[in-house]
């Protein structure tokens, strides 16, 4: 979260909290705190981290972005050539 008096540092955390509340928490009835933690954790891992596109990652999901980094580390020349061929 942010430093005092700097609202821009909070933007990403605030947006995440909004998404979590809108898509997972609102309207749900959890049996107990253990159930809530489990289901919220599953939401973050299954949907938020794997499917959601992020503008900071060039509108890729985190999994796609990391796969691209892995390809870049394994074969930097091929990765650069793929970037050059993109429209």
Structure overview:
The protein is an all-alpha fold. The longest helix is centred in the middle third of the chain and has 16 residues, at 33-48. It starts with 10 loop residues before the first helix and ends with a helix. It folds into two domains: 1-52, no CATH class; 54-87, no CATH class. The relative contact order is 0.07. The mean pLDDT is 80. The chain is 62% helix and 0% strand. It contains four helices and no strands. It is flat and about 50 Å long. It has helices spanning 11-25, 33-48, 62-74, 76-85.
Radius of gyration: 18 Å
Low-confidence runs: none
For the sheet with most strands, the description reads: none
What would you call the shape?
A: flat
Order of helices and strands: HHHH
* Residues in β-strands, percent: under 5%
- Give the N-terminus to C-terminus distance in angstroms: 37 Å
User: Would you count the extended β strands for me?
Assistant: 0
Tell me the number of helical segments per DSSP (H or I, 4 or more residues long).
Answer: 4
Specify the structural class: mainly alpha
Total separate domains: 2
Nearest-integer average pLDDT: 80
Measured as a percent range, the helix fraction is: 55-70%
Write the layout of secondary structure elements.
Blueprint: H1 11-25, H2 33-48, H3 62-74, H4 76-85
Could you name the key traits of this structure?
87 residues
């Amino acid at each position: 979260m942010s430093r005092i008096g700097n609202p821009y540092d909070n933007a990403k955390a605030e947006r995440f909290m909004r998404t979590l509340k809108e898509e997972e928490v609102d309207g749900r009835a959890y049996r107990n705190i253990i159930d809530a933690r489990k289901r919220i954790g599953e939401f973050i891992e299954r949907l938020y981290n794997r499917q959601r596109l992020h503008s900071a990652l060039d509108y890729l999901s985190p999994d796609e972005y990391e796969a691209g980094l892995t390809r870049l580390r394994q074969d930097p020349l091929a990765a650069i050539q793929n970037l050059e061929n993109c429209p």
